[in-house]
Specification:
The complex is a heterodimer. Helices cover about 50% and strands about 0% of the residues of chain A. Chain A has a domain at about 35-70 and about 105-165. By secondary structure, chain A is mainly α. The longest helix of chain A has 29 residues, at about 1-30. Chain A is built from nine helices and one strand; from the N terminus they run H-H-H-H-H-E-H-H-H-H. Chain A is flat. Chain B is an alpha/beta fold. Chain B has four domains: about 105-170 and about 340-425, Rossmann fold (3-Layer(aba) Sandwich); about 175-330, 3-Layer(aba) Sandwich (Dimethylsulfoxide Reductase, domain 2); about 460-565, Barwin-like endoglucanases; about 595-845, 2-Layer Sandwich (Alpha-Beta Plaits). In chain B, the strands form nine sheets. A seven-stranded mixed sheet of chain B has the order 6-5-17-16-15-7-8. In chain B, strands 20-21-19-22-18-23 form a six-stranded mixed sheet. In chain B, a hairpin with a 5-residue loop joins strand 25 (about 670-675) and strand 26 (about 680-685). The radius of gyration of chain B is 29 Å and the shape is globular. The chains are: A mainly alpha, B alpha/beta. At the A-B interface, helix 1, helix 4, strand 1, helix 6 and helix 9 of A face helix 1, strand 1 and helix 24 of B. Strand 1 of chain A pairs antiparallel with strand 1 (about 30) of chain B.
Chain lengths: ~170, ~850
């Protein structure tokens, strides 16, 4: 009886541990990928159409934030391209109603971080270094931890400033 | 393992699993705008506006981030304040986000409670009320001081709707000055004194760097000129301690001295000496200096013109100004009356002669409680304002006004508010062209002076009632930041209090916080005392907003008498209260925190006492940020303190925390007094030391020396041991003992460039590092270093006296580098060898 109880407890812990690890690493898989209001395939836009990241993320080279593209940018093509697709219909509806789209933010930094895209782009850091192979993703998910140790290792390798106040605000 | 243990472990591990699973970031939103926004993300735009925290009307630029103003700065193009802004102006932004702001029209229902109605209903009710004509009754409109287009709309509205426009109400109307100027110069508006052109300035009672006319402009001009400035006052004021010479005269005696100086009314030097209490030699010397000066300027105002002799003092100062061709220009014409007009209106109300009464941003009930008793006799009462005050609370219909910033499209409005001009337009008013200033022929000064005699001054204890540098006439009382910042001289934060002299404190056996009782204006008050060195004996000073609820008697010009005999003073047998003041002691105890003559030798021989160290000095590559503060310019007005609070999201902690010594200000003004009673005001913030004592004691390296010389503090690394604070000789580190929640929607005022610090974390001045980062980013785009003057801290930016210089001390062309090389330069507690990066320049008179 005692052995059985011990096995049950161990099993319980193993399961709980697996659950915790699973949630921790794959939480995004279950939630974030499905949360976007429009199923926007980055892969199609980058690989098939051949758009550069900066074509839509227009503020990434000159401001701290890459920002989600204004709908006017989408509508440059989508007044003609694939207008019958159900997803594009959602977009067109937003545009005709003049309602902004609220995307779920995938890459988030903590409250105390001062980050600027501009300086990283100016230093020649490719988007994929932090965002992964977005050109292969149908829905964007986070591939890097974006934790401090990861940031600092890159800063060290590339002789970028490692003063805390560079990033901590 | 028994059953209990099993469940215990089961519970704990399940809890841990749930906790870990919850440790996911809350998904925030990334919004796709419709079209390309005007501004890049994180970029600020500046919106022009006018400050109305006092009647000076300084120009402000609101820094707007994502449609929300986060900070006010002085407008450099505005001639009134030329880029600077005082404490009140800095705090004024919180009026926009004030939780008590009215958000929709309110109508008093049958139960007496206010009910929210729509604007259409409000306009219908208004038009209905205005349409009713009752014989023997008139509509009236009472407003605060208005100028320009708003004044034009009110004028047009009043004429079209047959409304009597009452003289506008300002508690500090300077009615005596206006009457004197009409008599001597033929001008009704207030003058603008150009002190830059004068070589001798004598001010009687006018608190020129606190509240008088344009205090920011006075502070700027006085700092920029080398004129001799003599200030005469019955009490102790910040203006007085900043003058080159401060002479204490008996309250109400100013007219006697002015008469002697002007050679009028046959007043002799001996009479003037007897009345003022000054030495005869002092008075003859003053007359001599006035005679010798090429461009002397004599200004009477403030407490000197609000006494029985006030009008005479104002006329005599105007006579002296005319005689010496004083440099005067005139402010815009306005319609400001005096409290005598309010008394007249009160009578009209009491007699049942008022039909619809309009009150715009004004509060006669607070100044005269008897007004509140007759307010109900008007047929219908309409109030315009941003928050309820006692007058608006007594109205039937209250219409919420928008903030001046909301009238520009760049700022998202709060609630359903409208501008006064917009409301009046909907009621049929139209814009009017600006009216030419009224210039009348001057009156007969000779006749006036022939028929007047100054009243002799009464001996004995006196109560002197002054405006407040923090809340002006009380309009700033609703802004929480202004109670959090200390009154500069007394360092009291949360009032009320009465300032008394050390000798009076001894006679009455009172200490700080002891209660003193007196009656004034038909009300009795029991207020705690603050004992101040250099306060004249027998003089009790109280700020006007602390006497709300009293009806003070008026002078002949209709101003409140600000000097009151205190014969019946009582010390009630009640326990003393804990008065929150921040200065531990005003005597430097010979430490030379502000060096006097006795420290001159030490200062000159500091090279002989070089501090030895085993460590190599810090090496800086491009930047070493440093600050220089010129104490000769600094007036201690506290504008920098307010700017720092707003810029850096510093929490407001309230009275109890202050009493416990847990104030959070990153920058404070320390008043120091010497044995002669001379004050020095010392701005004190983190000194960003080279050998900072705070750094090596941090067990987690949360504070460290940054490559540009700053003592950085990393908030999310800090574990709150407070060792750094204990090791700081300047006591500039602040600890978050508790979380300080902010009332909604005041949280929208937070500067997004600066973290909000949680409980258990140490914080302090950062030299506005977020501004440095921004400037460096900009410079890097252009592949150069930051220019001198390209980056400045919030405190230096707002300083009316331009006392603070910030920059890169490695740049030999920089202003801060040149200041550091000045002969007057010293550093506070330099002998400790901590090598601070804040350089102070002593006052010229002391070096």
């Amino acid at each position: 009886m005692k052995k059985l109880l011990f096995a049950a407890v161990t099993g319980y812990f193993a399961l709980a541990g697996l659950l915790v690890f699973g949630l921790h690493f794959h939480y995004g898989v279950f939630t974030k990928r499905l949360l976007q209001p429009i199923h926007f395939p980055h892969a199609t836009h980058i690989n098939k159409v051949g758009l550069a990241c900066t074509k839509c993320h227009i503020t990434v080279t000159n401001s701290p934030a890459a920002s989600a593209p204004p709908l006017a940018v989408c509508m440059e093509c989508h007044t003609k391209v694939k207008t019958e697709s159900p997803e594009i219909k959602i977009l067109t509806e937003h545009w005709t109603k003049q309602e902004p789209i609220e995307w779920s933010k995938i890459h988030q930094l903590p409250w105390h971080v001062r980050f600027t895209h501009k300086r990283h782009i100016a230093a020649g850091v490719d988007c994929t270094v932090c965002h992964g192979e977005v050109n292969t993703m149908t829905q964007v998910h986070q591939v890097r931890s974006l934790e401090m140790g990861w940031c600092v290792s890159c800063h060290r390798e590339n002789n970028a400033p490692t003063d805390c106040w560079t990033c901590h605000k | 393992m028994n059953r209990r243990d099993f469940f215990r472990i089961l519970g704990a591990s399940t809890g841990a699993a749930v906790a870990t699973a919850c440790d996911q970031k809350v998904a925030s939103k990334l919004v796709s705008q419709l079209t390309t926004p005007r501004l890049l993300p994180g970029e600020a735009e500046f919106v022009r506006s006018t400050c109305r925290e006092c009647s000076a009307g300084c120009g402000v630029l609101a820094k707007v981030r994502d449609g929300r103003p986060v900070k006010l700065e002085g407008d450099p193009d505005n001639p009134v304040n030329r880029g600077a802004l005082c404490m009140r102006g800095q705090a004024g932004l919180s009026r926009l986000y004030h939780p008590n702001r009215l958000r929709a029209p309110q109508l008093r229902g049958t139960t007496g409670e206010f009910q929210t109605i729509s604007w259409d209903e409000a306009f219908a009710i208004l038009n209905g009320a205005l349409g009713k004509n009752i014989t023997g009754r008139r509509h009236i409109f009472l407003s605060e001081r208005t100028t320009g287009s708003v004044s034009g709309f009110i004028e047009d509205f009043c004429q079209k709707r047959n409304i009597e426009r009452r003289p506008e109400l300002e508690l500090y109307s300077h009615a005596a000055l206006r009457q004197a100027n009409a008599l001597v110069f033929g001008r009704h508006p207030l003058p603008v004194y150009d002190v830059k052109q004068a070589d001798l300035l004598i001010t009687f009672g006018a608190d020129v760097i606190e509240t008088f006319l344009n205090p920011v402009q006075f502070a700027q001009d006085l700092a920029a000129t080398k004129l001799k400035w003599i200030h005469l006052e019955p009490h102790l004021s910040l203006t007085g301690v900043n003058a080159d010479e401060r002479l204490v005269v008996r309250a109400g005696s100013e007219a006697w001295l002015l008469a002697f100086l002007a050679g009028e009314l046959g007043v002799t030097a001996a009479q003037a000496a007897e009345q003022t209490g000054l030495k005869l030699s002092r008075i003859t010397e003053l007359a001599e200096r006035l005679k010798k000066a090429k461009n002397p300027l004599v200004i009477a105002g403030g407490v000197a013109t609000a006494t029985e002799n006030g009008l005479l003092a104002a006329v005599l100062s105007a006579v002296l100004q005319e005689k010496h061709h004083a440099p005067l220009t005139w402010a815009d014409d306005d319609r400001v009356g005096s409290l005598a007009d309010v008394v007249e209106l009160e009578q009209q109300l009491a007699d049942g002669k008022v039909s619809v009464a309009f009150f715009h941003n004004t509060d006669p009930v607070t100044y005269r409680p008897s007004f509140g008793a007759v307010l109900g006799k008007a047929s219908f009462r309409v109030g315009f304002g941003d928050m309820l005050n006692p007058t608006l609370a007594g109205c039937d219909l209250v219409l919420p006004l928008s903030h001046a910033l909301e009238e520009d499209g760049a700022v998202k409005p709060f609630g359903d508010t409208q501008s006064l001009a917009g409301i009046l337009q909907k009621l049929g008013a139209e814009a009017r062209p600006k009216q030419a200033p009224v210039i009348q022929p001057p009156g007969d000064v000779r006749k006036f002076l022939a028929n007047i005699k100054p009243t002799p001054v009464r001996a004995g204890r006196t109560l002197v009632i002054t405006p407040s540098i923090r809340t002006f006439d009380g309009r700033g009382e609703c802004l929480p930041l202004l109670s959090e910042i200390p009154d500069p001289l007394t360092t009291v934060t949360y009032g009320p209090w009465v300032t008394i002299s050390e000798q009076d404190a001894e006679t009455l056996s009172l200490k700080d916080g002891g209660i003193v009782g007196f009656a004034v204006g038909g009300r009795s008050f029991n207020l705690p005392v603050r004992v101040m060195p250099a306060q004249p004996v027998g003089v009790f000073t109280v700020q006007r907003p602390f006497l709300n609820g009293a009806s003070l008697p008026l002078t002949v010009t209709g101003e409140e008498i600000s000097v009151w005999p205190l014969d019946a003073i009582a010390v009630p047998a009640v326990p003393a209260v804990a008065l929150p003041f921040l200065s531990g002691g005003m005597h430097a105890e010979g430490r030379g925190i502000v060096p006097g003559l006795e420290h001159k030798h030490e200062h000159e021989h500091k090279a002989e006492h070089v501090n030895k160290t085993l460590y190599p000095p810090h090496e800086y590559k491009n930047y070493r940020w440093a600050m220089a503060i010129d104490l000769d310019r600094c007036t201690g007005c506290g504008a920098c303190v307010a700017a720092c609070y707003v810029e850096n999201n510093i929490p407001l902690v309230g009275r109890d925390e202050h009493v416990a010594g847990r104030e959070m200000s990153w920058l404070r003004i320390e008043p120091f007094v010497n044995d002669a009673g001379d004050f020095e005001m010392l701005p004190m913030m983190c000194q960003q030391c080279d050998n900072a004592p705070c750094e090596p004691v941090c067990p987690v390296n949360a504070t460290y020396h940054n490559p540009e010389g700053l003592n950085a503090q990393v908030y999310n690394r800090c574990v709150g041991t407070r060792y750094c604070s204990n090791n700081c000789p300047y006591k500039v580190r602040r600890f978050n003992w508790i979380d300080h929640p902010v009332a909604q929607p005041l949280d929208l005022m937070f500067n997004p460039d600066v973290s909000k610090r949680p409980k258990g974390v140490m914080e302090k001045c950062t030299f506005c590092v977020h501004r440095i980062v921004r400037a460096k980013d900009h410079a890097k785009d252009e592949k150069r270093l930051v220019h001198d003057g390209e980056v400045t801290t919030a405190c230096a930016q707002t300083c009316p006296a331009q006392a603070i210089v910030f920059g890169n001390i490695l740049d030999e062309q920089s202003h801060v580098h040149q200041q550091e090389k000045s002969e007057r330069t010293y550093r506070v507690l330099e002998e400790l060898g901590v090598e601070p990066a804040v350089y102070y320049l002593t006052s010229r008179s002391e070096s």
